[in-house]
Amino acid sequence: MERIYLDNNATTIVDPKVKEAMDPFYCQMYGNPNSLHDFGTEVHPYMRIAFDRLYSGINARDEDDILITSCATESNNTVIKGMYYKLIKPGKKTQVITTQVEHPCVANSCRFLETLGVDVIYLPVNEDGIVDGKILREYIDPDKTALVSIMWANNETGLIFPIKELCQVAHENGALFHTDAVQAIGKIPVDVQDTGVDFLSFSGHKFHAPKGIGGLFIRKGRDLPPLLHGGEQMAGKRAGTVDVPGLVGMGLAMELAVSNLDYESTEVRRLRDILEDAILAIPDTIVVGQRKIRTPNTILASIRGVEGEALIWELNRQEIAASTGSACASESLEPNPTFVAMCVDDQLAHTGIRLSLSRFTTEEEIEKTIDVLKASVERLRNISSRRP
Ligand code: 7TS
Asked: How far apart, in whole angstroms, are the C-alpha atoms of residue 306 and residue 302?
């Protein structure tokens, strides 16, 4: 059997159909779309199809914007820093609210705003591991809060945040709402009209497009100053020549992601549940977060007496890729806030292992993983019990 990839929340395989669709834009139709000659203009219809697929994938309206960026990190930076230049000025609203469990590209952008004098509130998660409208209501201040930025689904736990409710609370209090939907696209339905979000970030490589291409939805009327100044690409809203093959690929990947949502919520979930049940059958093991409020592909497990990192290496040795899921933020060794909020005790809290599936994961791979995982846990527990 070939090696097994269960780290799909970090990145995904490029769907072969996506790769095939991108191929002509490297050595045949390689013109710069801003050029006036045929090499430039012949790519326009393909770009338009890709944009249509992205708009319909998140249910954006024609009058809204989707900027093509290099990754979700760029999309998130554009919103958070853009809000500083646009709205957060002395004497005006000077507060941003986010959570303690955002990806570092949101968290560190917010920390940067703090150095510029912005007041940032990092909301704690509740006992379910999420932030809900009740918590946001406690902290939001109609006179101060300019922006609320809360992820749609957490990359480590897979826990899904109630975005519609959170967006409503932000709007009732006169704040704009941004969501990092990187881990939601292709796993659960994402609808910008239904939720009412003002800004939404996504990243191609999390849904079977290549790395190096992402997007930012901006609702009509919520224009932001560009993060990258330069030429007039994206109507001056994001300078730099667009990655045409990447855009074509991400458009198709979005369409495929949406058309596979049913498969994700049935078959991927079924395989995830088989793996999760097998993990939970190992004594002294927990999985973080209730299944019904998690993305269908994710497991963050904690196994007493087994360090997450040791288990990752053991699995890697046997050609299975998983991730530690940062039970501790690696540099700071601070306990993960979700673990803390959910009262996972200290010994368990330092042993997280994240297993994340995709629509390319097979039942055979899951069965093999279960066998290897059980044997590895036993081996590591034996080693740690022999330690003096
Ligand atoms: N936001 C979330 C929620 C993410 O999970 C990631 C990547 C990013 C933003 C960054 O995306 P990029 O397009 O800039 O690469 N998350 C992970 C992860 O969980 N393990 O490795 C990368």
From this structure: 8
